[in-house]
Request: fold
Amino acid sequence: MTTSSSNEELLRLVGITKKFPGVNALTNVHMQVNKGEIHALLGENGAGKSTLMKILSGAYTLDEGEIYWEGKPVTIRDPKQAQELGIAIIYQEFNLIPQLSIAENVWIGREPRTNNALRLIDWDLINNSTQALLEKLNLSLDPRQPVEGLGVAEQQMVEIVKSLSLDAKLLIMDEPTSALSETEIQQLYKIMRDLKSRGVSVIFISHRLDEVFEICDKGTILRDGEYIDTVTIGEVTTDDLVRLMVGRTL
Reply:
């Protein structure tokens, strides 16, 4: 398990409710994530984890409830607004364009321009700043390299670099280890711990409880779209988590 994080609150969700036709996806859900904390979001399939994260990342809007960011109430209407707050999400299906380089993918849609009258895309700045971000994560990748030549783990690292270029304060990772080898998983953990040491918070969604015990500080458990409990990972057992997730002892 990782060392404890700060007690300074970054995010607080209060009474989050989301309904779709014929189904209550979330009912009165709560969650708090502190700065520099790796926080697991746990629950069986259909528990509401993805819906909650889509609300947080601006893909869905909530029906009821409140979101507090760094202690202040905020409204997240779309992904751009979430990004501006400092919330980044890495889905299982990466949002990368294979034919473009690493640097182009990192800065796509917000390319810095030269200061002269022509206002051309500043490729030197794009490549150099991407190189600096790669070095910060100890990644020996060439920013000019096309993404299509990268493995799954490397593509995931590009997504993380992209979120750092947005100055993300909270990184949401949805099943990030599902397609990785054990060596690649350990590399991901190393990067997560590095982000944590720099005050970046991570919400970690995983079905693998051994991973939760290795990397997470706290965990929030959902069941059938409802909030069940928040626990300190070092103070519970696997059996405790399973019981909270399924509602009975297995």
Q: What stands out?
A: The radius of gyration is 19 Å. DSSP finds eight helices and ten strands in the chain. The longest strand covers residues 9-20. Strands lie at 9-20, 23-34, 38-42, 64-69, 72-74, 87-90, 170-174, 201-205, 218-223, 226-232.
